[in-house]
Amino acid sequence: MDIMLILQIIVLLGGIYLGVRLGGMGVGYAGGLGVVILAMLGMKVDMKDIPMDVILIIASVISAITAMQVAGGLDYLVQVASKILRKNPKQINYLAPIVTYLLTILAGTGHTAFSMIPVIVEVAKTQNIKPSAPLALSVVSSQVAITASPISAAFVAMTGVCEPLGVSYPMLLFICISTTFVAMIVTAFIVNKFYDLDLSKDPIYQDRLARGAVAEIKEVEYQALKPYAKRSVAIFAVGVLVVVCYALVISKSLGIVEKPILSRDAAIISFMLTIGFLIATLCKIDTSKLLSTSTFQSGMNACICVIGIAWLGTTFVNGHIDSIKEVAKNVVTQYPFILAVALYFLSCLLYSQAATTRVMMPAVAAALGMTTPENSGQIWILVASFAAVSGLFVLPTYPTTLGAIAMDDTGTTRVGKFVFNHSFFVPGTIMVALSVAFAFLIAPVLI
């Protein structure tokens, strides 16, 4: 290993470290700084390495969700989900992750879990259940569900890698949804069965309770919905259905439309913007409020993060692609699970499922010599490992993770002295590991 490679690795890891320390859009800022330094060290920097397709998909999906939020649609969805949890409080450890999983599938972003965190905490307290259990399951399931959402940037990026190599859109969607959903349910069972869930026995909770730091459980009062809240949800849901149907009919495996007018990515972007237009006009929203919503702000944050950190990662990977090919060819072919392990740890550093997918999957496919369906016999390894890009919870710095810690007034959702021993690590690792394991079982059979 020569000195220049060592310096480049230091820049890569240093950029990621600084980004995590800054948090938020700081991840993107640090990535941009890293690109500048890599260029000064002689690495080729190309604008093509910026994942514009991923960024545009995130921006367009967020724009539609933002319109729905202003119209009151998110409030309506939260009320529906809240009523489901409150009617079945004893099943909170199962229903909470299912709710956040489905919200992410529909919206294509895990930030929808934010709205459910206060409800989960309150319902858990009424049942003397440590909120840390359903919160950890819910936050992680919302992240894993990104790999199974047909409109998420990560899934679309993965489809772009797999479809030219013979894995159809519907097949990839089926594998991702089935394996992640089952893994979520099994993880919830493990937590429900083997975790100490008794809230009253938690010493930190008792201390906070004695100091009056735990809010009393109040009678539920739902705010009146805006006039077109339900209509906005209906428009958005129909729009997502149209996107999925369009992606299916242009899929090469079905062959219904051989020469589509719009590519899949172009369809998602244009359809999402159209959904935003329909909500804005048919639901009579005040468009001046769009930029101030939490959804838009989190979406812009995600875009900047992906620009910087994915550009940094892709620049480094492309600069050493030959060496990476050699390692991947020798290691991944003999030990396929190594790819999943690498994706798991890389995702917590890159801070994004989409960025991890965009940086790693094309490089690994090229490393294994997969250029056409005829020589893509090992594509199942990539598909089976895909859920491992969901390791964003490993470092307790992701927004939904921090939100859950902050909003749990019982103190059971916390970070330990050693950083990694936090409430999300074990349930999250189990869920990701099971998702990958189930995919390793069915992917070789179906593909």
Automatic annotation (TrEMBL):
Protein family: Belongs to the DcuA/DcuB transporter (TC 2.A.13.1) family.
Annotated membrane topology: Multi-pass membrane protein
Source domain of life: Bacteria
Secretion signal span: none
InterPro entries attached to this UniProt entry: Anaer_Dcu_memb_transpt
Transmembrane intervals: 26-43, 55-78, 98-121, 133-157, 169-191, 233-254, 266-287, 299-321, 333-351, 379-398, 424-446
Molecular functions (GO terms): C4-dicarboxylate transmembrane transporter activity
Keyword Cell inner membrane tagged: yes
A GO term from the CC aspect: plasma membrane
Native organism taxonomy: Bacteria, Pseudomonadati, Campylobacterota, Epsilonproteobacteria, Campylobacterales
Name this polypeptide is given: C4-dicarboxylate transporter DcuA
Localization per Swiss-Prot or TrEMBL: Cell inner membrane
UniProt key word Nucleotide-binding: no
Pfam families: DcuA_DcuB (PF03605)
Record keywords, A-Z: Cell inner membrane, Cell membrane, Membrane, Transmembrane, Transmembrane helix, Transport
